[in-house]
Design goal:
44% of the residues lie in helices and 15% in strands. The structure holds one RNA strand of 74 nucleotides.
Length: 487
RNA sequence: GGUCGGAUGGCCGAGUGGCUAGGCAGAGGUCUGCAAAACCUCCUACAGCGGUUCGAAUCCGCUUCCGACCUCCA
């Protein structure tokens, strides 16, 4: 916490010094996935971005309670507005499954995918269906405060009424008239008094499967409600950071803030962090546009836009090479560049242990370390951090080649710095197979080859090297012997 | 249509008034039996047109193009 961290706050549209409400504790809420289908790569980018935030806050000494929800009910489908079908229920009917079967399947898939990307689990991962009571209580409070009304068993939030005493556009910076004038007329919204009003509680139709009793009807909660209720429950009325994809900002987060303020007159979070979109050919990756990749397709290369597969850590590195607030465009060329860069960084990390210290040092590593912190303190600037780490890699390689001298003290700092930032902060890890007999076998083959080589039997030595290359191992002859690495 | 944001070298991508990241690709060199890796050197760009300034990729205006949101979305 000696770090002077600055965070870009969507509320102020500025970078602000990060000051938690009660350090060293930090409360962070991030809107998680709706578990009605596989997470795609764009979703993953958001959670990887917040994983970086979580990891860095933790690294600099904060005790973070990280809450990321799973939406397993109440999320309405498409153009029909609040009359639309629950996404999960729709999928369940199609697949002739219980809604909770769908939820279970895609929750497991989500967790697996997060693990593959080395995304740390949040401290608490609450579900909407697990907090129906809390949501009903919240609706009661909003009703009592006079910012909601009931029509035929459904409850709607009265946006125009709310805006008379509060600023509805505090986050999205839009005035109400503009919003009203630019809102399309949608079908099936007869019940609502105002165009911008949104549902807090929806009365279920008879055929609806997911429904719960409430004072108003047998029904289900509106989508925006769960995040208000659950952040309030686990982090309090006010907490430090609220995050999510930038596409959630104009509507979902705007409504969330309105709900919280309407119920307890406090804006829930001080810092609002929004991550930008992953694009494909310049267009947002999204399920509805049909241009999304599943992580599995990326790993295997099984997609028409892909030349080959890329490993999870390559993908993670690719994403961290762009700043979280910039759009990131996906392409094969960019992925291949990241694949090589990632390998270069990890090779340097692996060489650290074998480096020998000199009596004197030609490098001052503490300066580099400070530059790494400076990068992250500037709104989690991982691309700049990675640039600094490539400088660290250059030092490692030069020392290894005997071209640069480093003393024990600087070597220790260098090692610490690289492990801290590459593994703990960026969350990158080596993907090579470990803990088996393979290294011993390879070392033996390498020794055989070196015997042939010292006899100038290059036909044999090249045969061994080429053979290993074909099955995925690259040999590298150096002054101090031969190294191998997985290609 | 309204609101907001973006346009950086062959590709990706940082940077917000002078010091002009980084990765990948490309060229040359060192090393090496040859490779590979590594190291060194080179390629030095900011959509266009005006303006402000001693000085602009960075600030202002206009133009062109692209995107996001306005409707579920990470």
């Amino acid at each position: 916490m000696e770090q002077n961290l600055f965070v870009y706050n969507t509320l102020s549209r500025k970078k602000e010094q990060f000051e938690p409400l009660s350090a060293p504790h930090v409360g962070m809420y991030v809107c998680g996935p709706t578990v009605y289908s596989d997470v795609h790569l764009g979703n993953c980018r958001t959670f990887i971005s917040f994983d970086l935030v979580f990891r860095y806050l933790t690294h600099i000494g904060y005790k973070v309670r990280y809450v990321r929800n799973v939406t397993d009910a109440g999320h309405l489908e498409g153009d029909a507005g609040d009359e639309g079908e629950d996404k999960i229920e729709k999928k369940a009917k199609l697949a002739q499954l219980e809604p909770m079967e769908i939820v279970q399947k895609y929750t497991v898939d989500f967790h697996d995918t997060m693990q593959v990307f080395n995304v740390l689990p949040p401290s608490i991962e609450p579900t909407a269906t697990g907090h129906i009571i809390e949501q009903i209580e919240l609706v009661k409070q909003i009703l009592a405060a006079g910012f909601a009304y009931e029509v035929n068993g459904s409850i709607y939030f009265d946006v125009e009424r709310y805006n008379k005493t509060h600023d509805y556009g505090i986050l999205n910076r839009r005035n109400l008239e503009d919003l009203i004038n630019n809102t399309r007329d949608l079908g099936g919204q007869d019940e609502k008094l105002g165009k911008l009003d949104f549902a807090l509680w929806i009365k279920a139709k008879p055929e609806h499967l997911m429904k719960w009793p409430s004072p108003w009807s047998l029904g289900f909660p509106g989508w925006h409600l769960e995040c208000s209720a659950m952040s309030n429950k686990y982090l309090g009325k006010q907490f430090d950071i609220h995050g999510g994809g930038i596409d959630l900002m104009p509507t979902h987060h705007t409504n969330e803030i309105a709900q919280n303020i309407a119920s307890c007159n406090k804006i829930p979070a001080n810092y609002w962090i929004h991550t930008n979109m992953l694009t494909v050919n310049g267009q947002k990756m999204s399920k509805s546009l049909g241009n999304s990749f599943l992580p599995q397709q990326l790993f295997t290369g099984n997609h028409s836009l892909l030349n080959k597969g890329y490993s999870p850590m390559t993908v993670r590195f690719f994403m961290l090479q762009a700043h979280y607030r910039s759009t990131l465009d996906f392409s094969n060329e960019a992925m291949e560049a990241s694949e090589k860069g990632f390998k270069r960084l990890m090779n340097a990390l692996a060489l650290l242990d074998g480096l020998k210290a000199s009596a004197t040092s030609e490098v001052e590593v503490a300066i580099l370390r400070q530059r790494c912190y400076d990068a992250m303190n500037d709104d989690f600037n991982s691309p700049v951090l990675i640039a600094e780490l490539f400088e660290a890699a250059r030092i490692v390689n030069s020392v290894k080649d005997g071209k640069l001298k480093i003393d024990a003290e600087n070597l220790a700092i260098l090692g610490q710095l690289m492990h801290d930032f590459v593994e703990n902060v960026l969350g990158l890890k080596n993907e090579q197979a470990a803990n088996n007999d393979l290294p011993k076998v390879l070392d033996m083959i390498v020794n055989l080859r070196n015997e042939a080589k010292s006899n100038k039997d290059y036909a044999t030595s090249d045969k061994i090297r080429n053979g290993l290359q074909e099955i995925g191992f690259q040999l590298m002859d150096g002054k101090e012997g031969t190294n191998w690495s997985k290609i």
